Amino acid sequence: MKIDPDSTADFSAQIAQAIRDAIVSGDLIVDQRLPSEAELADQFAVSRPTVREALKRLAAQSLIRTQRGATGGAFVNRLRFEEAYDQQVTTSTLLLSMNSVSFDVACEARYALERACGPLAAQRRTPDQLATMRAEIHRQSQPGLTDEAFCASDVTLHRALVDGAGNKVLSYQLAGAVEAMHPLMNMITFTARSRERIVALHTALADALEAQDAATVDQTLVELESYTRELAHSVVTARAHQKTKNDPNRRKRTEPKESRSA
Amino acid sequence: MKIDPDSTADFSAQIAQAIRDAIVSGDLIVDQRLPSEAELADQFAVSRPTVREALKRLAAQSLIRTQRGATGGAFVNRLRFEEAYDQQVTTSTLLLSMNSVSFDVACEARYALERACGPLAAQRRTPDQLATMRAEIHRQSQPGLTDEAFCASDVTLHRALVDGAGNKVLSYQLAGAVEAMHPLMNMITFTARSRERIVALHTALADALEAQDAATVDQTLVELESYTRELAHSVVTARAHQKTKNDPNRRKRTEPKESRSA
DNA sequence: AGACATTAATATGTAAGACAAATGAAAATT
DNA sequence: AATTTTCATTTGTCTTACATATTAATGTCT
Fold it and tell me: Straight-line distance from CA B71 to C1' D6, in Å?
């Protein structure tokens, strides 16, 4: 496990990669203790701060954990589904916002993936998951609910559907797709009538799942996708009209430089 | 943007989180330059090495990039699909191996997701993607091919299918599912007869895609999944027999500790 | 002898200061 | 005007030091 002093990359990046490779290849196994920072510094012939930077890179990916004290050190971390979820959600969300992915593309991906879960969920959904869906549907029909809370409830319901497939890998892979839609959905204003329609579709979905009727689950998801996209389009066109009305000669967006919260 | 000196977490983790939040919330926008390390150290009232550890954490997630020199510094990085792919593949692979996910569960997830791409791919596949699939099918029918190369070709073919859906978000989400199967697939020994069968199914898949026949695409994927699982099962049972034959009184599996490839 | 407090050792966490190297901009020179 | 030189800025790295957490060993008292 060595580094190349001629490489253009930082030492800390190279060291991190070397350790990462050792973990991925199985050279370092879960819960195994890495050499102390001082020893690693010796081995790689760099200073301790440089080693620390490398270790922090790995910690950021949840590949290692550190512990202070006499028997402490850096240990290979067992990557858990929950941690992986969080990373996936953050990455997916940023990916969508930074590459200005359209609502349609994201929506298509999300529903294509959810429909993949449909047949499995119809087969395996637990009473618990059905109860979660019913509870969220009930919440969604409350009149005083904010748009944001409505969206959050929507995400919870859809995650229950995904979890219904009873496949942790599937749940993990879809976490990003479902959650990353959240910010995009938040731009929609849900009128009372549109909420009514969505609640009706959600109810149909829950009913079909309860009846283990895969075909209806799939059909309902198709309708839900189509209606969601319809809603988003009406928002976009409405906003476009408003913009040209309010500020027809607005400057082209170059550097907003908005104030940062302290 | 402050940190809590009473928190149990490291300063560097807190600072990283604060900056991460600023990026996710849109407070810091793409290509915006962060204050220099010295300024950040002042702002957060910590030393420069601590700030650097925080920045390296963010760099490990591709959230920032750094540049040396007079006009250098740390900049908010535009997260690209390609970088996100890689991270997803690493994370997914480790997730599967560290949580000893069964072949069946991973395989089910993979094919459920690929079938989600089927209808879209049947509609949108480009001549280029079809050509890639044909080329890989040809490679797979070469007699001298190692099992590892056969697997790698399989992955390429399946990625072409996924990309055929013409949805970058979908391609990104599925990268992990497809690639993470690679190590598991590598445990299978592909006999000449099984390769023949797989090549036939791959050909049927390519034909159906070319004919834009979504139903056949779906059916072929179902058959491919069933055959893959069948293959894996035969390998598992064969291995089990061999083990009991070689070492009938072996201890119950607690810590396999099998030989690791260098 | 056993329970408890003290001490020591080891590790990570943090700080401070210094120098090297890269890089772009300004200044000086041709 | 074009080119070269100088210089200021910023990250990358090293060294040393101390703070703090944690465990193990030691010692003391009952």
Answer: 17
